[in-house]
Amino acid sequence: MRAISGTLLTALVIFGLSVLLGAETAAPGPTESAAAEDDGGSSGVASQRFMVEGKVSIPFTADQEWVPATRVVLDGGQYLGFLRSDGSFAVSVPSGSYAIDVSHPFYLFDSVRVDITSKGKIRARRLNNIQPSLVLTVNYPLKVKAKGRASYFQQREQWRITDFLFSPMILTMFLPFVLLMILPKLINTQDPETQREMQQTMGILNPKQSLPELSEVFTKLFGGGGGNAKKVVKNKPTKKRS
Amino acid sequence: MNTLDFSIIFQFAILLFDRNIQCLYEDQAGTFDWRQQYVGRAQFVEYIQGGQSGTRIIVGTEQNVVAAINGKNGQIGWRQVLEKGPSGHINDLKVSGNYVVTASAGGEHIRCFNAISGSLHWESSIPGALPSHPASIQIHGSDLVAVLSYDRIVAYNIEAGNELWSLALTDSTKVKYSYLAFSEEVLYAVGISDRSHVSLNSVRLDGTEKTSRSVAAVWIASDNKCSILKGSHLVCVDKNSGILQILSLANGVNFAPLVLQDVKVDYNKVSFPNLQLLGDPHSPAVIAVEVGDQEYVLVAVENGKARVVKHLPKVAALQVMGMGEQWLLLTARRSDNTDVLNVFGSDLLTGSPVHELSHSIKYPIHHGNPQRLYGTLSKLRDGSSGLSLLTCGEDHSLVLLTHSGKALWTREEALASILSVEMVDLPVSQIMAKMEDEFGTNDNILQMFLKRFSTQLSQLWTFALQLKHRLRIPRQHHAGGSISETERMSEEDSDDDEGLDETYLTRDEFNLHKIIVVVTGPGKVFGLDSNTGVSIWKTFYPSLGTFHRIDRDVLLLFVQRTTAHFPHQPVCTVLGKDKVSGLPIMFSFHPITGLPSESAPSEGRRLNYKIVNAVMLTQMDEHFLHPIVVMDSEKKFHVYPQSDVDLVKQFSASLFVFTTNIETGIITGYGVELDKKQQLIGNPLWTVDTNRNLQAITKVVTKRALEHVHSQGIVLEDRSVQYKYLNPNLIAVLTEGEEAQQKASAFFSVYLIDGVTGNLVFHCTHKKSKGPIQLMHSENWIVYNYWNQKQRRMELAVLELYEGTRQSNATAFTSFHPPPPPIVMRQAYIFPGHISALATTITEKGITSKQLLFALETGGVLGLPKLLIDPRRPEVLSQEAREEGLVPYLPELPRPADHIINYHQSVFNIHGIHTAPAGLESTSLVLCYGLDLFYTRVMPSKMFDVLKEDFDYFFISSVLIGMIVVSVITQRLAVRKALNRAWK
Predict the structure, then answer these.
(1) pTM
(2) Using CB atoms within 10 A of its CB, is residue B565 exposed (0-12), middle (13-18) or buried (19+)?
(3) Can you give B871-915 as a three-state secondary structure string?
(4) A32/chain B closest Cα distance in angstroms
(5) Contacting B residues, span 124-143, partner chain A, CB-CB under 8 Å
(6) Of residues A238 and B203, which shows the higher confidence score?
(7) pLDDT tens figures, B616-657
């Protein structure tokens, strides 16, 4: 997966370069590519017409109001298709390659490219503007399904208490507050049982009780800060009580 | 898979900029935008009576639209917009039962629509159809549809849509088959062979027994006006002699001529005589010959013979309709230059008047003369018959008139063909104007004080009145947003009665409320209220015709004086050409009221020379009027108003004009000089030949004169400044051509030319690319789109011009001492969609970043920030580039749905977007026009200068009050505590 997207990214960058070159002035045009690349729209000789057929469906709605408002647009309006009441369409076009867009004010559809050979063979594929030669075929006759409703509007921000409480600012402010103020209260230090428990845990943490001097050294070293902190912790509840 | 990847990247890119772009909230939809939908000028009108959905009027229009209009209220029931241009041009439209059959592009598209829902019933295409050869349709009975195209007749079953039979016509290269008619069981197709004969083909309804014969007619020309009357007679008008020629289709051997006796007909006139078929297939065989302006002759045809029934010298439009057993002739005429339309009914055969059909109906003068009538009768409760009359006016309007003498509804279809738009500021209120007045006078201090005191007192008084008014009516009825066009009309009616609120048409706080002056194709000028889209005034200039430039019609609109110069009245001028003489004609009017301005003649100022160029100077005369300078074909300059000649002479040394000749491909620049007679004359200074043999000029785009550029350059990451190349005289010329060697390979070039010196600043060519190209020119950049033939996709290219790190002249740009050739940065992007119009926002001071507006063929109007269409977007985002705020390069531009500024209000065939600044720097006003109109406000950098409308005053003030309360309480507590401590 990752490898694929990586190569795609590089392809993208190379493509960007080629676009740059495309805009260059009066550069000798690249040689004419294969016949399949031939432009479809301007072939005036081919009077024979072929039908591009398909069916549009919108799964989100039951009524048929959407049918007359939907248009099938080939190459930006050069050819148009209108929907029959069952959602099907047929557009007669000369051979060539056409980008097909289905447009409706409320719904979004995927674009498709349809290639028609001069003999009338029709192939449909996903429209890919970035790599036009890439072929990812889709079924023909086309089945165009709405992707979803177009979200034209921004969601208005609403003030909700949960948003406020779970915002990172509030969390960073309140968590230390909780730790400082509430935790010491939960653990009742006056209770003899808890005192004993604490001593036991201390005992587990400091199994070597034969080295008390070292701990004294440490307390002397960090004595100032530790003492102050303890004072703060102890002071606050006393303040409240007074 | 890969599209998914790209879309993720795009979403990322969008996320980066979402903060900068204003999007709409759902509850804002319709609060400051409006849309109006139109159908265009009706060519075909058919009634569908009764049924569940009431009376429907099916129209086929010049704008390639098929639509159903509700007969009760004039609203569009459904509308289908066919292909643009000739491939969608409706040749014929017929209605049978619940089906509407249309033929467009000579039979390339035969479509049958359901008349109730508007959905397609079936569609077909006739092989070998030529778009240049109009097709015609005939429906027989309730099931058979026959279509005549260039070289064949095809019959369809209307219910199933299957082809029943097809018949090839002979000799179609020489014979122009144009007329099709049923006569009981036989179908006739008639073709004209120029100056030789008429070909008659007949076939039975089942496609058998085909016969073909020809009748000699040496006088006939392929542009002759003919008609088939009731399926039995061919009636033609010999244009040269004005003689009516009649031929029986079944057995006629020769044309029977009919000289229109007793009728003085001026056959030298351009478009007469004309033929008009009257009534339906069952009515008597009578045809109306239009022999002059508002002059008709009724001709009855029987057994190959014709006779004149009636001469109608003063009739604007006429129609035949049935009432029971009787056939009635309905004629309409405006009584001399008044708002009254006189409708007369008479018996068709005896000519005796029918009084219950004769009415005088109010038909406002701005509709011009009615051109066509469609009358229907309905039985009223008291047994009499009520007439309802649909009229198609000269101004493209559709009006349904009723026997009660009033218009039931009006559709202003002229607005579907807008050519020029200007948004004009409303005048300040009278009190404000008085305040301003104070500064111009030289009164003594006491007078000034008294004046100031009285005006401010009256200001206070009006404020109190307004407050009272507002309290009484909580919501003004003008505040509504999306009003459909027919509601508009009813509102308009009520406005006519009570008159507009005096204070309504004054400038608002942020100058967001404007009058949109639009000039339309038929010569009708509207003043639209920008808040609602309602037309405040409308004026019809019947003689105003359009100029034709390159591929579109043009009418020029100038705002000669804005409303800023009280007590001088604002002046707008429209310049077109006279419909009859073809010489230029000029109308001046007051943009707020629509009344003709006092200084100019109300019937228009006619200019007696051929016009080549017309410009409005940016300089003002002593009356704050911008003079219009017109150049004629003999290179002489004319100044309007004429009194400003001296002003122009004064500036003539710095006045330069260029003209573009499309035929020769040569652009010529002129300087303005004085000749021996002290007259202004053009002196050719430079020419640029674009080589017409290879390519044709398709667009010439200058910058907007109003545009302000706030920043002279951009600051790079190393803190140096890249100065913009801001040449106000720069013109962008677009040429398109076909490659000579390779077939079907088009190319186009963009030339940037200095309009004063003719210096070619830049030039580039795109190979294998073609139009339709839209080009936009603003500040120091140019954006255009094109179709890449090789990759088969739409691309958008941007050019940006920079002087470099040094600015040659910081105070003013001069073309005579130009800076060194500019550095041109350019880039191309893939555009996901097809563009029909392109514009950029414009703001008061130019500080706000620009937004590009793209009208898409699929109905949306996309707004993208200029930031995304920047040639400097790097492929790899370096630290420096990030600091500068550049976006990494991605080949395809995004098309997010929330940047569609008209959300689900789709608009079609948009051919122009007009933007105008508002009083707020953040806001730009946008009017998209084409078949539909859409107006909105855009804020490209969000609303940075006003509080958001959803600003939570309650929350902020409660927090503020809470803080104050808390601080007071804690202060008290602290004091008490300090006191306690002191006691210890």
Answers:
(1) 0.82
(2) middle
(3) CCCCCCCCHHHHHHCCCCCCCECCCCHHHECCCCCCCCCCCEEEE
(4) 9
(5) 125, 127-128
(6) B203
(7) 888 888 888 899 999 988 888 998 888 888 888 888 888 899
